[in-house]
Every structure is written in C-alpha cells, then in structure tokens.
Amino acid sequence: MTVRELPVEEYWLPGHSACPGCPAALGLRILGKALGGRFVLVVPAGCTTVIQGIYPRTPSRVPLLNIAFAASASAASGLRAALELRGLDLPVVVWAGDGGTVDIGLQALSGAAERNEDILYICYDNEAYQNTGIQRSGSTPLGAWTTTTPSGKRERRKDAALIVAAHKVPYVATASVAYPLDFVEKVRKAASVRGFKYIHLHAPCPTGWRFPPSKMVEVGRLAVETGAWILYEVEDGVLRLTGRSRALLDPSKRKPLEDYLRLQGRFAHLLRPENRGMLEQLKKSVEEAWETVKKILERGGRIF
Question: Which fold has domain 3-298?
C-alpha cells in the first residue's frame, strides 16, 4: 500500500480547535480514510471532545457519541447491540485517550474485552492528561515531566496493549501516527475481525511534550527507531513485529534513545548529569519491554 492508494475524501474536516500539530486530529483523518467514513465513533472526555467542537462547527462527518470518561467501552457495547437489532452492520469505534483508557476507563475496557464485544477500541496515547493541564497518567513514561511530576515521573508506564491481549481477544495492535500506512492496515484488519479489537496508537503531543508542532512526525518516527515504541500485532494469540520494528529486535540496529529524548522539553532534565540515574532507569525499561517481546517471539509468538 502507498499513500496514493488512500481515499482523497476527508471525514475529519479542517477548521477545528486542535492545537497545531495535534496527533489526535491526524489520527482521526487517517482512521476516516482507512474505513471510508462508514463507522460510528464513541468519544469519552478528552482532547477529542474539545477538538470536535459544538454543532454546527464539529469537524466529524461520521456519527459521533460523546460519553462520560469511564464509560466509552460500555457505551460502544450498547451501541453495537442497538445497531444489530436494527440490522445495521456498521463498525463501532471507540476513540479514547490514554487517561480514558489505561486509568479511568480501564474497568469498562476490560469488561468489554472479557465479553468479546464486537467493537474496535483505539487508544490515542499522548502519554498524559493533556486536555486538562498535562497531568501524568498511567501511560506517562518513567522520567517524563508533567505538571504533576515536575521532577520526572517515578513509576513505569502500564503496558496497555499486552494487558488487553491477556484477555484473549481476537486482535490487538500497537501503531503510530508517524507510520500512517501501518496504522491503516491494522485498522482495516481489525475491522474485518468479529469480536473485540484494540489498537494502541502512539500520539506525540507538541503541547504536552514540549516540542515544535512541525516536529510531530519526526518525534513519532524516532520513538519507533530508538525502540521507545514497539510496533506489533497480536492476532489470535500470536504476536509478530510489524513495520519498522521488525528490524529492531537487535539493539544495535536502534538509534540512541537520546535522539528521541532531546527533541522533547519534558525529558530535558534527564539529559543533565545529576539525573543520569533516572535516564538509565528509562533505558532499562525500554530494554525490558523488548526483552518481553523477544521471549514471546522465542516461543513462536504465542501469548495464549
């Protein structure tokens, strides 16, 4: 697939209130093209709630349901059932941030996954509660500055994709807005599967991560090229690396993590000599994530 093969039609229109370089807005554009505009969106509280605006200024050309922070997966389950009762076979897609997924919405997400609801849940992960003032979330990386972790977050991030995969659902994947074709392929594959599907989309936020909007795609690509973000999919319980990450199982093939960190103001303190220890902890957490994937691949990629 090439970019030229994507539909020209836009399903997320310009003129909305997203920050310059917003990855969520780009992700929604790609999602619309991947599904051809034929789907229903469920959006909990978060950046997208603000971006979509108030009628008649909303940029969405697909039906969109706003719902409470914790209830997106539950609402999507009910919406899916209602559509089936009416004989409508429309994909139901949750579009939720990391706060509404790995923290506040985790119980509803887990319940929907356990029931194997026929919905596609996409978490656009900008690694903090960016909309409400850049507070840390369970997906914020170790060492990162936020307004609630001014000296750097002390805890490691949750591995949400593997948490969902442990529910033994048909399809789980990670993706990045910086690799749109990989994302499109995963969305289309997920849409073709019956049952619960989950895609965890890395979404570098210029506002919260403290880098120029023009660098958004570069930062996203460096996240993958340094190994800080791993692209993979778990299909019927079997994990395989995808896209650029397929060549990065060998650590020597990855770019230095510092190449990714130095573009972001939220990690500026880690590059100072006095914070060397925290930097090493972050590097260790990246290597351990790769070791987890490597061990899974050594047993044939099977998770369950």
Answer: Rossmann fold (3.40.50)
